[in-house]
Design goal:
Elements: H1 2-37, H2 42-74, E1 101-102, H3 105-126, H4 131-139, H5 143-169, E2 172-177, E3 186-193, E4 203-217, E5 220-235, E6 241-242, E7 247-254, E8 267-276, E9 283-290
Antiparallel strand pairs: 1-2, 2-3, 3-7, 4-5, 4-8, 6-7, 8-9
Helix pairs in contact: 1-2, 1-3, 3-5, 4-5
Length: about 300
């Protein structure tokens, strides 16, 4: 129940933060328009800057605070087993998910579109909120309009790819064998993809140990992520199980004996990333599998 309510809370933060970001984007566009137009009252320009800073800062803090938690809480439901790990008695040994870990495609796609949407609001605000004005400026060959639209299109590329991947391959689930990450032993499981696919090469499975450190500056929460260790393996095409309804990728990765069990700052998280080359947009999905470390 605790994890479910925390996931709901994170989604609520995201829903609240996005409108704040959009208002901040409108304020930014208004300030830029007044700045470049010239002849505007200083008070109006300062007001637009204040709106952009206030709402944009609050929205950015809410979204950044919610996004790391959404993936980690919405996909796992296993209890943690207490114990000592590494240098600190306060750390807990962490069990991996006791059941299937389902990728949250809605959150992934929504997060991918967040930056392009904010960019579009800034661009429209700069054009006075009038799409026709923006299109006329592009047709007239105005450099600022062309550069702005070009940058917006570039921002849309990753979001479009993510959306197409979600629509093409459907939901993905990670089913792990066992309940512990143990140094010197195998991490085994199966990635289940909700559509049949025809791989053009071996699937790559990577297991990442990530150090996440959260800091707060001027009421804005930021998360710095560092890869502490990366393990990888490949599953040949012959080892990928395909049916009419789904694709299953069994894997096994050896966790080395010197794998980190804790970090000096922040927290240690483990993620599994699977990549399958196919014709067109490749399949790639990450799954959080552990949030404190390994069982020593």
């Amino acid at each position: 129940m605790g994890r479910k309510s925390k996931a709901t809370s994170n989604r609520l933060l995201l829903l609240i933060g996005v409108p704040f970001l959009l208002i901040g984007a409108i304020g930014t566009g208004s300030a830029l328009r007044d700045l470049f137009a010239g002849g505007q009252e200083l008070s109006r320009t300062l007001f637009s800057c204040g709106v952009a800073a206030l709402f944009g800062g609050v929205g950015f803090g809410l979204v950044r605070g919610a996004r790391p938690g959404i993936k980690s809480t919405a996909t796992q439901g296993s209890p943690r087993r207490s114990g000592k790990v590494g240098r600190s008695a306060e750390k807990t040994r962490n069990a991996v998910a006791a059941g299937p870990i389902r990728a949250d495609l809605a959150v992934d796609v929504g997060a991918a579109w967040l930056i392009p949407i904010v960019g579009a609001f800034i661009l429209l605000s700069f054009a006075g909120g009038n799409l026709r004005t923006l299109l006329r400026a592009v047709a007239a060959g105005e450099p600022a309009a062309i550069i702005g639209v070009g940058l917006l299109l570039l921002l849309c590329v990753p979001a479009v790819c993510r959306s197409l991947m979600a629509a093409r391959f459907g939901p993905a689930t990670l089913d792990l064998q066992g309940t512990q990450l143990v140094p010197g032993e195998l991490l085994q499981g199966t990635v289940i993809i909700g559509r049949a696919m025809a791989p053009t090469g071996p699937a790559t499975v990577r297991v990442l140990a990530l150090q996440r450190v959260q800091t707060t500056s001027h009421d804005v929460l930021t998360t710095d992520t560092t890869t502490v260790m990366e393990l990888s393996g490949q599953v040949p095409v012959a080892g990928i199980i395909r049916t009419a309804q789904q694709t299953r990728i069994p894997f096994s990765v050896v966790i080395p004996t010197d794998a980190p069990v804790t970090v000096d700052r922040g927290r240690l998280e483990w993620e599994l990333v699977v990549h399958v080359p196919v014709t067109g947009i490749d399949f790639e999905q990450d799954f959080p599998i552990s949030h404190q470390g390994l069982d020593a």
